[in-house]
Amino acid sequence: MRLYCGDCTVYDHLRCPTHRIKEWTGSFFIATSLKKLGLRIQLGHTTGESCILPHKSFNDNFVLIDTNGIHEMVVDFCGCETSQTHTKQLLCMGWFPSTTVDPRTAATFQLLHCYKILSFESKASTYEFYHSLVCISDNVVPLIQDRYESFMCMVREWQHLKMLKHFGRGHDPVGVSGTKEGECAVLCPACPQPGKNLPPDWKEAPKAKQWLYSLFVAIDANFRLKRQNISSDEVDPSLSEGWSYFMEEKKFKSHLKEHLSETQEKSSCLNHNAMNMAETKLSQGLAATGLGTRPNGVGDLQKGEKYINMDYLFFSTLHNSHLDVLNVSYDISLSESYHISYLCLFIRFFVPNFHLPAHINKCQTLFSFNFARFVGRTDGEAPERGWFNINLVASSMKAMGPGCRRDTLDNHFGD
Q1: Helix ranges restricted to H, 75-193
Q2: Strands, DSSP E only, in 307-376?
Q3: Which residues pair with 29 in a beta bridge?
Q4: Which residue among 24, 47, 214, 229 is buried most deeply as judged by most CB within 10 Å?
Q5: How does pLDDT run across 40-67, given as a tens digit for each residue?
């Protein structure tokens, strides 16, 4: 807690430019900043060195967002002949720029990682987190420069790049643009994956053992993850084109458009409203009334849990499957009008135990896990436990644009 003169304080903070400084007036301490004391951060050189051709940031002002608040500072970019771009100079400092053209704002890697973990664990929204930083900064920042929109962009880009990094996309010879649909999704370690966790001769297993290599497909929908009719895919596109959990949006919407005029038959064997509410007025003003999900096959629901949406999600998850036995769990089971090659696959349909009492007695017998062989003791309700964890982000999802919503949910599903 020693006191230092202004020059010593500046020198000592060349490596710690985001420390919050107070100045003694003779009677009390007042908040000041390293910028006011004359600190200039030189990028592209060793700490303490100066550049002979420094390029000042726009208006000689730069905003850095860190875990201890929002800081105004003076940054000089290196202008030497061998210098890197301004973006790379910031990245070498561990600062993530808000734009690649004339960056004036950045967030530290530490802050972006901190928010990523916090959002997964507490489901705190970007708005809440940013304004917590404003409070830490003595609520002065909004009066100077509001960087909330820039922060939202940095968070989204950071999480997208981290996803690509975790799946090694930068090292693939075809590059990031060659990423295939679903390639950045975390696969379930318990699901049978040929070439990964199955013996080489699994196809030759005797009939008594073939059930060990069956795929359990659980399908479900969530009607809390609504989205208002805000923005569009043209204005707010997703950064990944079906690379993670959400499917490729253009093909999905094209499929729905082809069958838009079809009226869905009312269900006669269950009391759930998921299907029968599909044509009600509850969806007015909403671009999405909920979300249907399967690994590598997440998509929006427009009017209740319509077969046309759910079956597209279901089949999109199976096009890369090489297994011969499927156990399908769905709380309302599937329509009989969809095309699966029954000559190649052995498929059984089940209704999860919690949803089963809503069906007629015949369904409760035919589609019960309790009366089926080779499925173990399971209730089929695993998706519900996943929804319980994700429901906490519903309020912040509702007002997001379509691309931002998909990217944010992709990150939460990955966690």
Answers
A1: 86-92, 109-122, 126-136, 141-144, 148-166
A2: 325-330, 346-350
A3: 24
A4: 214
A5: 999 999 988 989 999 999 888 899 999 9
